[in-house]
Amino acid sequence: MLVTIVAGARPNFMKISPIIKAIKLQQAEGHDIHYRLVHTGQHYDKKMSADFFEQLGIPEPDANLEAGGGSQAEQTAAIMVRFEKDLIEHKPSVVLVVGDVTSTMACTITSKKLCIPVVHVEAGIRSGDMTMPEEINRIVTDSICDHFFTTSDVANNFLRKSGVEDSRIHFVGNTMIDTLLQNLDRLQQPDCWNSFSLKEKDYFLVTLHRPVNVDDPANLKKLLDTTLDVTETYKIVFPVHPRTKKILETINYQHERLFQIDPLGYLEFIYLVKNAKAVITDSGGITEEATVLGVPCLTLRNSTERPETITLGTNELVGVNPENLKPYLQKVTNGNWKKGGVPPLWDGNTSGRIVEILMKLY
């Protein structure tokens, strides 16, 4: 049995790392299962790609399609053309895609047109926001893939309502949490910890990259102004996404309590999440990590595809209006944030469950 595993962007790497480890465990026990790792090259910034492979123990890809750059349409086309050639040359038993990036959708379409089955890890999640490219990627992928590995009952129910049979839905948990729990004792203190004199629970961590939050310089400035005004004496640590950096440079935004740094490796970034007073983000994956770590999380979006981080976890949906931030920040600074808990099956054993099911299916 040969599984082609697709990774294309930073969120994918945390999801495939434990799956590869689970396959190797089965191999060590004598089972006939092998994998081929294809990196589409969708993210090509070193901090967005290469560091994650090294830190998470992901082996060198068997193929790098080098399809980064260009518009989403150009990227999709490049991935499909190059992935098709790889599949024809190395035909697998099944293709495994993860998450909701462009690579996920493009490689699913390509595989299905070659009549190769596809399984989708993190299937069935929806934000309801069709302005998000990720939502389109999810819908297309889930409409044609063969089996669905899900993170929550919400995802299970959505797939059922869409007409997917229970035999194709596999509630396994969250592979990102596998990676988180496997690396908690390996976290690395980033250089900025000492250079900024950071202390546990004495700073806020900010990540922003979505167009609605960062593309308008005035809106981005208002978000940061509001955060700095309400957090009073707390330091704000801001690993700046390349997209956001371009906007910040146009307005030359600076503040003595705002520390703008380059994107971090996984082990350094999670160190900052774990020790933060709270996280302010527009990322979906970070809400999951904050929930498991018990860290308050303020999500600057109008909708989320991860509602369990709100109903069960430490996350709250703030919206994209900068004014909405104030009462949520005050809750954090006053110590009135909800405690939260961990969703079912987010236990670190998801990847093992996935691989066991794959061996039964294929």
Describe this structure in words.
The chain folds into two domains: 2-174 and 346-361, Glycogen Phosphorylase B (Rossmann fold), CATH 3.40.50.2000; 187-333, 3-Layer(aba) Sandwich (Rossmann fold). The chain contains 16 helices and 13 strands. The protein has helices at 10-28, 50-55, 72-89, 102-113, 133-144, 153-161, 175-183, 192-195, 211-214, 217-230, 242-251, 266-275, 284-293, 308-311, 325-333, 350-361; strands at 2-7, 34-39, 63-64, 94-98, 118-121, 147-150, 169-171, 203-207, 235-239, 258-261, 278-281, 297-299, 315-317. Helix 1 (10-28) crosses helix 16, helix 3 packs across helix 4 (102-113) and helix 10 packs parallel to helix 15 (325-333). 46% of the residues are buried. With 362 residues, the protein is α/β, with parallel strands linked by helices.
Short description:
The chain is 45% helix and 15% strand. It has 362 residues and is an alpha/beta fold.
Key terms for this structure?
362 residues, alpha/beta, Rossmann fold, 2 domains, six-stranded parallel sheet, 16 helices, 13 strands
Radius of gyration, whole Å = 20 Å
CATH arch. level architecture of the largest domain? 3-Layer(aba) Sandwich
Structural class per helix/strand content?
alpha/beta
CATH class of the largest domain: Alpha Beta
Report mean pLDDT, rounded to a whole number: 95
- The neighbouring-strand order within the major sheet is 3-2-1-4-5-6-7
